[in-house]
Amino acid sequence: MITVTADGRGVASHAGSRLLADLADAAGLPSAFSDALCGLRERRAGHDPGRVLVDVAVMLADGGEAISDLAVLRDQPGLFGPGASTATAWRVLDGVDEQMLVRLRHARAVARERAWWLRAESGRGLPAASAGGRDWPGLVLDVDATLVEAHSEKEGAAPHFKGGFGFHPILVFLDNTNEALAGILRPGNAGANTAADHITVTDAALAQIPDEHRHGTPILVRADGAGATKAWLAHLRSLRDQHGLDVSFSVGFTMTEQVQQAIVDLPEAAWTAAIAADGDHREGAEVAELTGLLPDPAAAGWPQRMRVIVRRERPHPGAQLRFTDIDGWRFQAFATDTPAGQLAALEARHRAHAGVEDRIRCGKHTGLGRFPSRMFAIDTGWLELALTAADLIAWTQTTLLDGQLARCEPKRL
Prior knowledge:
- By secondary structure, this protein is α+β, with helices and mostly antiparallel strands.
- The chain has helices at residues 17-26, 29-36, 49-61, 71-74, 77-80, 86-94, 98-121, 195-208, 211-214, 230-241, 257-265, 343-351, 356-363, 376-399; strands spanning 129-131, 134-136, 139-145, 148-149, 158-159, 165-167, 170-174, 179-184, 219-223, 247-253, 272-275, 281-289, 307-313, 330-336.
- It has 14 helices and 14 strands.
- A nine-stranded mixed beta sheet has the order 8-7-3-9-10-14-13-12-11, sandwiched between helices. A three-stranded antiparallel beta sheet has the order 4-6-5, with no helix packed on it.
- Helix 1 packs across helix 14.
């Protein structure tokens, strides 16, 4: 017989969050944050600023939306230890200046290296990125931007292209583990294809990868059509040619008139069957290479040896037709500098970039969906803690959990 009661003693809500806090401790995150925030501690008897920010990250990973949600941890000292007040947490966040923010990012990288070592010590290697029914070697970084609404006047918030008002952060996730490597908080009217922001966030993401994996490991950087800028792709190429990183790219490519004409000129024999995410035949979809039918990309300022590949597919019933649809086909093009490989496999690898939208959606339940302050500097620090929350979940799932728990989304976890 099972008896269910609501008056038990020693019962703790959100007890699973203790696992995230323990892993943060094992990775050295509190001490790394404390070193980054040296000088913020007002008195020896007060709360350690590094521990306060780790508690905020754990709270966000548990689904918190506001600093006041720290009460969930603070009200259970037997489980989480003594917690800081809401006012103390506000003071710590308010005290984080630009130099401290840089040190916090470095602290995250230090803790990440330790977390990856702990995963290896547990007998688990770095998970492989999968697409098209196969595992791909190396690391896969997905770059994407998202809109976050602001429902009150906030510094840095602005109207955006969808008619709302808020922020337009750009983010980088590691597809292998779902870790949130880097992010930049931007006004809502920031451009989706601003090359300078792509360069900044990519460099910040690469700095988060432990040295032994950043050097000598293939790194694929993926983005949608917003990443098809000559300046950003040139920067990615320079990382390989000038800095010795094995970096390649796969980005959406704009359907210009030249691309559309090249598609029209393609002989029917050039098309080959596309494959689905599981590697099986993708019904009604085909791929072909356009590179030889386009003007020399390098002469137009694109990286040398860049390839342009296109997929065609019949729109599903009821889909709204586009001007770029030709003869009932819908086309999507992408560019890559991967020199070899089956077209269908390369296209499936690029299409897997869509998974970053799930990472962002989950991130909006763990801190990315709401910026709590009217001050842009505090919201920037909040973004860094939201990224840390995503990391704690990813480290826990890839190091300690198995089966469905290792794959489920934060709300269910």
